Each structure stands twice: as C-alpha cells, then as structure tokens.
Amino acid sequence: MKNRIITISREFGSGGRTIGRQAAEKLGIPCYDAELIQKLAEESGFSESYVKEAGEYTPHSFLSFAFSNRAQGPTNEDVLWDLQYKVITELAEKGPCVIVGRCADYILRDKADCLKVFIHADMAFRAERIVKVYGEREQSPEQRLRDKDKRRAAYHRFYTDMKWGHAQNYHITLNSGVLGIDRCVDIIYGLF
C-alpha cells in the first residue's frame, strides 16, 4: 500500500482538527476524525461517548488498572485499540486521506506513504481558543489543556511506546499559534 496519507497529531486546543479538515478539503480527499469514532462504535458495540473517551485517552488510573486486569484477558481499551488499528489500516488502503489523532502516525508507520504532522501552540493561544471555539469556561482553561494533553500523552506512550509530541517522531511540527491555522493548512497542502 503506497497511498499518500496525512496523519495529524495535536495538542488540545491547537486547531489540529480544524487544520486537518481544511487541508483535506483543499486537497479534495476525505478526513477521518469523528467518523472514526462512529465506525469504532458501530463495530465494537460500545457507545460513541465511551469510544471517544477510552479510545484516545487513558481513563482515570487506567495504566495501573490495565496491568492488574490484563492477566484475565484483554481490557475494553485493548479491544478498542485492536479495532482502531484495523479500521485505520483499512481507511488508508482505500486511498489518500487525512486521519486526525488515534495514533494513526504509529499505526501506519510501515503501511503507507505517510506525512506525519504534529500541531502545537503555546498555552495562551490554546486557552483562548478553547474558550472561544469550544465554549470552555474561562476560569481555568489552562488546567483543562494540561489534563487533556497529559491523558493523550499517556495513551500514546502506552500503546506505541513512543513519546507523544516528540519532534523526532513526526515529519513536521507546526506551531499554529505562530503560523496561524490557514498557514498551517497551506504548508501541509504544499507538502502533499
């Protein structure tokens, strides 16, 4: 399989989802994000809200909990990981696309012609953005950002044994706070 795939990993609030969607639209290729959650929910029988939470983040003290329960067989999170691996691989086999999150950069590392992108920004930019775009409370958006990023990093490390956000794991990292959303889209478009 040598389809050109763009994977977008991102810090919460950096605009990675928006950048992925706009880049896909500009390139005329599909973008998979919420669609992945829907497909995983359909195939697993879990609710979309459960898939969204368990499929990208490690729930509460999941790491210690998972190690203790693994002797009894795979956890729900392991079942979702295996299904996620299968679904992402199948989507990449269909043709060029953008895949947002879900460790797609790792899953497709040896399976596709893949441009691996990480989107980040400073805390002030992301805090302002989640209040404006997502309607988050203004009291402590920084704590919400830290919590979400910590959970994403733990999930990524657990299933890939790679450091999430570490520049060496991606082809390009883009600071959306400095470059702006539109410029990030243009850069990705230019690299496709």
Could you explain the architecture of this structure?
It is a single chain. The chain is built from ten helices and five strands. The protein is α/β, with parallel strands linked by helices. It has a five-stranded parallel sheet, sandwiched between helices. The longest helix is centred in the last third of the chain and has 20 residues, at 141-160.
Short recap of the structure:
With 192 residues, this protein is an alpha/beta fold. The chain is 57% helix and 13% strand. It has a single domain (4-191), classed as P-loop containing nucleotide triphosphate hydrolases (Rossmann fold, 3-Layer(aba) Sandwich), CATH 3.40.50.
> Helix proportion of residues, in percent?
55-70%
Class from secondary-structure proportions = alpha/beta
Please tell me the CATH architecture by its name: 3-Layer(aba) Sandwich
Could you report the average pLDDT, rounded to the nearest whole number? 87
The ordered string of helix (H) and strand (E) elements is EHEHHHHEHEHHEHH
Per CATH, the class reads Alpha Beta
Into how many domains do the coordinates divide? 1
Q: How many DSSP-defined strands?
A: 5
Distance between the termini: 17 Å
Radius of gyration: 16 Å
Q: Topology, pairings included?
A:
Blueprint: E1 4-10, H1 16-27, E2 31-32, H2 34-44, H3 48-56, H4 62-69, H5 76-94, E3 97-100, H6 104-107, E4 113-120, H7 123-134, H8 141-160, E5 172-175, H9 176-179, H10 181-191
Parallel strand pairs: 1-3, 1-4, 2-3, 4-5
